[in-house]
Design brief:
This protein is mainly alpha-helical and 208 residues long. It has one domain. 71% of the residues lie in helices and 0% in strands. The chain is built from eleven helices and no strands. α5 packs antiparallel against α6, α7 packs antiparallel against α8 and α9 packs antiparallel against α10. The radius of gyration is 17 Å and the shape is globular.
Length: 208
């Protein structure tokens, strides 16, 4: 019975991830649907193209917090040993993937989700604050010097699993983070092509 209840954490995490704060914030602040302009991606970077910095910040915080909340809720119910206990660690892996996939393919928004950068960051902070801080620092450093949000996201996606292995060794969660890494790269495939062609928009630029 307890295992059945624990398994419910996975669909709950998916539903939490399915709340697209880019869409919610835009509707509340009477801004255009983020799918209809710029990159068409419902994320903070695209919302920023409206010129409304508050909306972009709220989107960023909301998408990050849902990843953090889903992981912390699971850790609270499964116990602190969920990072090392064999069964609970796999359940936590399921929660991590579910909330991330919820953001990418949200049931509440026609399965048209974002690229998952902020949500992945929240997930990492939920797993361990040092892991989250190290990965976030990677994003900030690349973004500051290169001015490309997509390039910073790709760098953070690659280094996230590496930081995890460095901190915790080879654990099941490392597999989940590696899957998230590949999903992030896949979601940024158009950005990668634009970077190679010199057509990628820089942070803060407006794109019609």
């Amino acid at each position: 019975m307890a295992l059945t209840l624990d398994l419910l954490l996975i669909p709950i995490a998916y539903l939490i991830g399915s709340v697209s704060f880019a869409v919610v914030v835009s509707k509340c602040m009477r801004l255009p649907d983020p799918h209809s302009y710029g990159s068409g991606n419902p994320g903070a970077t695209n919302v920023l193209r409206t010129g409304n910095k508050l909306a972009a910040v709220l989107t960023l915080i909301g998408d990050a917090l849902k990843g953090y909340f889903a992981v912390m809720l699971a850790r609270l119910l499964l116990g602190d040993e969920s990072l090392t206990s064999t069964l609970n660690s796999w359940l936590l892996c399921g929660v991590v993937l579910a909330v991330f996939l919820g953001h990418l393919f949200p049931v509440f928004h026609g399965f048209k989700g974002g690229k998952g950068v902020a949500t992945a960051c929240g997930i990492l902070f939920g797993i361990n604050w040092i892991l989250g801080l190290a990965t976030l620092s990677t994003w900030i450093i690349v973004a500051m010097f290169m001015r490309y949000s997509s390039l910073a996201a790709l760098a953070a996606a690659i280094f996230g699993p590496i930081y995890f292995v460095f901190l915790f060794g080879f654990q099941p969660m490392g597999i989940s983070l590696l899957i998230i890494c590949f999903l992030l790269i896949w979601r940024h495939r158009s950005n990668i092509q634009n970077l190679l062609n010199g057509k990628e928009s820089r942070i803060g630029s407006k794109k019609k």
